Amino acid sequence: MRIAWLDCSAGASGDMLLGAFIAAGADLAHINAAVAAVDPSLSVTVSSTARHQIAATKATVEVNGTPHPESIPSEDHGHGHEQGDDAGHGHGHGHGDGAGHGHEGSEPTRSWADVRRLLEQAALEDAVRARALDTFARLARAEASAHGVEPDDVHFHEVGALDAIADIVGVAAASVSLDIDRLVVSTVVLGGGGQVRGQHGGIPVPGPAVLAILSEAQAPVIGGPAPYEMTTPTGAALLATLADDFGPLPPMRIQQTGVGAGGRDPVEVPNVVRLVIGETTDRSASEIVYETNVDDLDPRIWPQVLARLMEAGAADAWLTPILMKKGRPAHTLSVLVGSGNAEMVRAVILSETSAIGLREFGIRKHAADREFTTVDVDGQRVHVKIARYGGQVVNVQPEYDDVAAAATVLKKPVKTVLAKAIAAGHDLWS
User: Fold this and answer.
1) Is 306 in the same domain as 160?
2) Shared-domain flag, residues 291 and 312
């Protein structure tokens, strides 16, 4: 299983995460195609830099080929374009970056509904769209909570919204490009002891939005050594969306690393995020089971729900009849899924059924090695799955649809064709 670890010991911002993913091998062309699909004026460029003599990659957002104003370093903060700009931008208070780039109340804005519409209509891969929507939704919920408004009433200032779109969609595309099955995030360092300047005055560090986002994600946090904002709202929201777990570097055989730089080089810490990618050394794969009890869904809908779950990447999905309180008949929906597809499976469960919550269990899945081949049954091709354990063939399973089709052509019972396909599969390896 391909796993990764994000080292956030210097905090995190959108540009730092984007730089780390690109440095670790994410396809920049793929990232720019996704960013431009949402707004054609946007692009991402990269350059080499260093923080405390540690080589790093700096990602820069450009608008119509010109570096974004928020990408221009200021004198007093630790992260680049995002440090202090609060890419969540909140309900009328997009933070300034401390260098005169704060947004005035007359700036045009995009509501959360506007941004959501942009993402939904853009020509994005489903996985990229889902991660970007989830990240922006976390920002909107956090800002709404901080300002006592509804999430749909949150407005993103136009400049900051472009900045956040590039970072969020870019990181979403980068994470899909790297094909990571499980991402673990370290304890997140937030900074503290100071304030960032918002449109309506000072905002304490850590900011309310950062605390709300990481609280919702149940992420472990610490203040850290530097008296400034080390984790921005966009950085926090991306971590919350991408993290399958939080903790130290998991056991792995390291394959590649990436170091992404913020816009400053402060004295307290190397201002970088590190991404470490490798293969797990544990041969048992980590999987998740989601469960929810449903007693008020038209049963005719269940086949479509199960089909949609499989399309979303579930390894298996099944229903168990149960009897709930007050004698109500119901079903328990259970879904087995790898962590890489967990987000899309959750979305299907909550959107396609009447469930308003679900349970999550971490499990270990032990899988035999498998391969696919075809066998000939009286002139008909049938696909079969060969399972091996300890180097020995332990199971041969024909594809049922192929067996049924062959039985129709041959005018033979399905059980006869099935037996011949199994025997032919075993004969290949005898």
Assistant:
1) no
2) yes
Task: Count other Cβ atoms within 10 Å, centred on residue 109.
Answer: 19
Rg (CA), the chain: 25
Cα–Cα nearest to 241, from 137, 328, 131, 346: 131
Q: For 154-174, what is each residue's pLDDT tens digit?
A: 776 644 577 888 999 999 999
pLDDT at 259 over 90: yes
Among 184, 187, 241, which Cα is nearest to 219's?
A: 187
Model-level pTM?
A: 0.62
Q: How many domains does the chain contain in total? A: 3
Of 49, 44, 25, 1, give the one whose Cα is nearest residue 264: 49
Cβ–Cβ contacts within 10 Å for residue 29, how many?
8
State whether 274 and 392 are in the same domain.
no
Q: What is the DSSP letter of 168?
A: H
Question: What CATH number has the domain bearing residue 355?
Answer: 3.30.70.1380
CA distance 70 to 35: 17
Closest CA to 398 of 378, 430, 424, 368: 424
Same domain? For 190 and 129 the reply is yes
In this structure, the chain runs to a length of 430
State which residues form the domain around 291: 285-365
Residue matched to tokens 């777990």: 245
Residue 235 structure tokens: 């950085």
The Cα–Cα gap between 155 and 277 comes to 36
Check whether residue 178 and residue 315 sit in a common domain. no
Of 333, 365, 397, which closes a domain? 365
Of the two residues 214 and 198, the one the predictor is more confident about is: 214
Q: For residues 330 and 334, give the distance between their C-alpha atoms in angstroms, rounded to a whole number.
A: 13
- The reply to whether 312 and 387 lie within a common domain is no
**DSSP strands (E only) in 225-365:** 245-246, 252-261, 272-280, 285-294, 316-323, 329-338, 359-365
Q: Which string of DSSP letters, residue by residue, matches 198-230?
A: ETTEEEESS-HHHHHHHHHTT--EE--S-SSB-
CA–CA separation, 216 and 151 (whole Å): 15
Rounded to whole angstroms, how far apart are CA atoms 320 and 333?
7
**Separation between Cα atoms, residue 108 and residue 276, nearest integer Å:** 39
Q: Highest-confidence range of 94-98, 274-278, 326-330, by mean pLDDT? A: 274-278
Of 59, 50, 51, 70, give the one whose Cα is nearest residue 18: 59
Does 92 share its domain with 140? Answer: yes
Average pLDDT, the chain: 84
Cβ atoms of residues 31 and 174 within 8 Å: yes
